[in-house]
Amino acid sequence: MTSSSFEKVQPGPVLATVRRLEERVEARFPGRGLHRVAGELAGLVETVASSTASARGRRSWLRPLSRFGILAVVVVTLTVMVLAVRSATVDAPDTGLEWIPLLESAVNDLVFAALAIWFLYSVPERLQREGLLELLHRLRSLAHIVDMHQLTKDPERLRSSFSPTPASADMDLDPEQLGHYLDYCSELLSLVGKAAALCAEASRDPVVLDTVSTVETLTVSLERKIWQKIAVLDQMRAAAAPES
């Protein structure tokens, strides 16, 4: 059965979407910091794509090598056990207490063999864990940066009844511009989550998958705050429409 392109997240479409969003932000808000954030996300997606591709390449030859090592450990352990049993049957101890050192040695051999098998089995995943976790940390930081950009973009400040203080941040966007700005922030957060999902496509390491889930949960939570602002803005527009 051939695998479908819809079975996993592809880096190409994600990068194309980020680049298109970068152009849209620049066209509507030239010179804004949000455009630089979109460019940073595009660079991260490219890094994730190249890192996951190289990780798959390393894993393609590390996995057979680790499985060969596991087979070697099993063969050596079984050989040692067979020789030990044969030696014990030839020179059988006279009393039951004399069997204890032999049993203890056999248990130790089995424990060490199990540890070696576990180590060899997990080598391909653990070798790429550090790089993926570093990328996920950068994506999580970028999500917080996007949240900082929309933090002061409160629709309530567009009301005529709003009374600013000397410490209030300037609102230099009209309702239409604010709607677009919040939409762009929401799209950026969604694409941060998609970039994190690309890391999950390259690894089955539980630590990596748990971190990916954390980043995706973070972006959804931050998007929810933005959509609450968009809902308030839409209500303000609807209320102002009859007056105009």
Radius of gyration: 29 Å
Distance between the termini: 60 Å
The helix/strand class is: mainly alpha
Order of helices and strands: HHHHH
The domain count comes to: 1
Indicate the low-confidence ranges by residue numbers.
none
Task: Please state the average pLDDT score.
Answer: 81
Question: What is the helix tally?
Answer: 5
β content, as a range? Answer: under 5%
Largest sheet: none
Helix % is over 70%
- What best-fitting shape do the alpha-carbon axes yield? elongated
Report the count of strand segments.
Answer: 0
Please describe what this structure looks like:
- With 244 residues, the protein is an all-alpha fold.
- It has one domain.
- It has helices spanning 11-28, 33-90, 100-151, 175-201, 206-243.
- Helix 3 (100-151) packs parallel to helix 5 (206-243) and helix 4 runs antiparallel to helix 5.
- The radius of gyration is 29 Å and the shape is elongated.
- The N and C termini lie far apart (60 Å).
